[in-house]
Structure formats: C-alpha cells, structure tokens
Protein: Sugar ABC transporter permease
Amino acid sequence: MSAIDAAEATELNLNVVDPKKKRFRNIRSYWDLYLIMLPGILYFLVFKYLPMWGVVIAFQDYSVFAGIWDSEWVGFQHFRDMFADDDFYTIFRNTLLISVYKLVWGFPGPIILAIMLNEIRHMLYKRSIQTLVYLPHFLSWIIVGGILINVLSPSSGIVNKVLGLFGIEPIFFLTSEDWFRTVIVASDIWKEVGWGAIIYLAAIAGIDPQLYEAAIVDGAGKWKQIIHITLPSMMGVIVILLLLRLGHVLDVGFEQIFVLYNSLVYDVGDVIETYVYREGIQQAKFSFTTAVGLFKAVIGLVLVALANRGAKKLGQEGIW
Structure:
C-alpha cells in the first residue's frame, strides 16, 4: 500500500466515528452553549409538555378529590356540551373576529415600521424613535387599561375633548358595542408594533448592501428598492412569523380583554379566554373548559399545518 493510500485510509477511519462518541465529543466541545440552552429546555418541559398530560381530564368528569386516576370517564360528553351551548358560538365568533382583525391590521404594522425605521439615517433620532415605540411592550395591560380608561373617558378623556371641539357628542368607547373591538385591536397594535419590528429590523440588517447600490446605479428610487429588494429579502421571515401567528389565531389575550371589557359589551367582547375563566375557575368546570382549550389548540394546529403546506407550495421554507 502506498503512502497516499495509507493516508486516505487513515482519514476515512477518522471520519467514520461512532455516533455516540461523536455526540459526546460535540457536547464536551460546546458545553457552554448547551448550558445556555438548558433553562429554555427546562421551561418548555415543565410548563409546556408535562402539563399536556392534564388534557386527559377533557374526557373525564374530573373531581379534585378523586384526581385524574379515579375520575369518571365520560368520553366526548364535554365536547357535545360545548357545541350544544348557544353562548359558545357567540364567544367563538367574537374570538375569531377580534383575532382576524388583529392579524389583518396588526401583522403588517411591524413590517411597515421596520422599513420606515431602516430609512432613518440620523442615528440619534432613529434610536429615540425605537425606544419610544418599544416602550409600550413593557407595560402591563393593567397599566395600559388604566391609561385607556382615562384617555377614552366620555367626561374627562382627551379624545372626547378633542371630538367636542368639532361638535361631536361624547362617545362611550369602552361600553359601546360599535367601538369596543376597535379599541381592543388599536390598543394591541400600539402596544406590540414596536416590539414586533425588532425581528424585521434584524432581517433587513442581513440584506447585502450591494443590492441597494446596484439598484441606485440602475436608477431605482426608494420605493422600488423597498418593493424589489427589501420585501423579497424579508419574505422568509415574514412567512415564518405568519405561520407561528396562525397557531395562536384563537389566542386573543385574556389580560387585555379582562381589563377592558364589561357586561355592556359581552355580546362583542366575550372571548374564549374569558369564557374559560368564568366557567373553569369561577364555576370549577375544569373538564369542560379543558375540552374548550383542547378544541382551540386543535384549530391552531390544523391552521399551522395547512398554512405550512401552502407556504412550501409557494416556494417558501415553512416551519418544518
């Protein structure tokens, strides 16, 4: 055997390594990265995956005293009760409408804001604007709710005072069925649009500057650069975030609704989260509300699977 053949054989033997040894060697080499991952993994195991065992009570007449093992098995009875409840259809409609409104009006918001911030060249001004639009995300809905109640007050709120200057009668925004959903959607966009723009700004930062230089040489203005370079380069991130958002299409946000709604707007503002709170916590119907939650999760899973399949057919990567 020549020296060259011996070297090739040695290299081949080195490449054929036992997978277990290779995995162990990889962990030893990057132990610090795995250590950083550990809290996130534990979070999902403890708070996301282990509680999934409790879904079984959706098929039981669960009793706190009997526990999961000894509670009576009732099969799909709670699901039949759910679909037989006339109030559930109203609540499902409210949840779907508010969620769709948030998706249609709120999802493009961070994209537009990120593109606008990217066009600002004065760094001090840009950072000041970023700070102002990020800040509402860190406020709890209790604080935001208090602000909205005062700002939209029909007697002392600044909004109605401005409307009064134009001869418009005071509007009871938080007790009007015509305005309540608008307030919910608008306040959610105001609170989260800045935070959502962070990911899109990162995607824009990864675009090759030479593409813009070439476009300028070809005579393309800012608008054409955005249409033909910025948006296509962001499309992968946009699709992934849209798919993830569809998985939470029935998650309107309990805290926001609970803080702002009242009995006068139940017909348009009562959603699945508040329904589960009243039925599950206040009336101790744990099995019934678990069935409602499972139904909501299945809807989200189906939507994500269908949207992911559609994204792949359109040439995008998708989630899996």
Notes: The beta strands are 60-61, 72-73.
